[in-house]
Amino acid sequence: MNKLRILLADDHQIVREGLRALIESIPGLVIVAEASDGRAAADLAAQHTPDLVILDVGMPVLNGIDATPQILAAAPHAKIIALSMLADRRFVRRMFQAGASAYLLKECAFDELRRALDCVCRGQTYISPGIGQAVVEDYVQDDRSAHGSEAFAKLTAREREVLQLVAEGRTTKQIAADLFVSVKTIETHRQHIMQKLGTTSVAQLTKFAIREGLTQLDL
Asked: What is the DSSP letter of 2?
C-alpha cells in the first residue's frame, strides 16, 4: 500500500519536529519535505507533489492563505490542512476560499489532528470545534474591521504578496529580487496598494498587514 506523502510548512522548527514525530507514529503516512515559509512550501510542493500539506497560516515571506493557491497550482490533488493560533473568522474564511480542506487551532490535541487527517483523506472538510464557537461569537459582535476587510478585498494576490514583504521590512530592491521583477514594477505595486488602502506610510501599511493577517509581526 502506498503511503500518503506529507509536506510540513511552519516557520518554527520545534513545531515541525513535534508534528513530524506525531505524524510518523501513524502507519501509512510519511513526511517528504519541510518548509519554513510559504514560498518555500509552494516550491517544495512543485518538487514533491505531496498528497497532504500541513500548513501554518501565519508564515513569513508568503503567508499560508496566499501560499495555498500556489501550492494547489503546483500539486492540484493535494489536500491542505491549515494550522493557526487564530480563530478569527476572516482567516478561517480566507483559508477555505483559498482551497484548504481543514482548519485547526495549534492548541488542538493530537487526536484532533488525526480526526482532521481522516476527514480530509475521505474528501471531507474539518474545522476545530473551538473555531466554530469563536466564529459564531465574532458574527454576533460588531465587525469593527469591516472597512479593512473591504479594502483587503481590493488587493490582487501579487499586491498582497508585496504588502507582506514590505511589512516584514524588505526593501524595494530586495522584493524585486525575491519576485524576479524590476524595481519599477514593485514601486508601481506599492503605489497601487497605498491608493487602494488610503495609506501614506510604511507604518500604516504594516499595521494593516498585521491586522488583516498577512503577517504576524509584533506592533
From this structure: P
Q: What is the pTM assigned to this prediction?
A: 0.76
Asked if 168 and 211 count as a contact pair (C-beta separation under 8 A), the reply is: no
What confidence tens digit (pLDDT) does each residue in 89-128 have? 778 888 888 999 999 988 877 888 888 998 898 888 888 8
CA atoms within 13 A on the CB side of 50: 26
**What are 20's three cell numbers?**
513530524
116 CB-near residues (< 8 Å, 6+ apart): 81, 102, 104, 126
Question: Residue 17 carries which side chain, given as an amino acid letter?
Answer: E
Bridge partners of residue 53, in order along the sequence: 7, 80
End-to-end CA distance of the chain: 49
> 142: how many CB neighbours lie within 10 A of its CB?
6
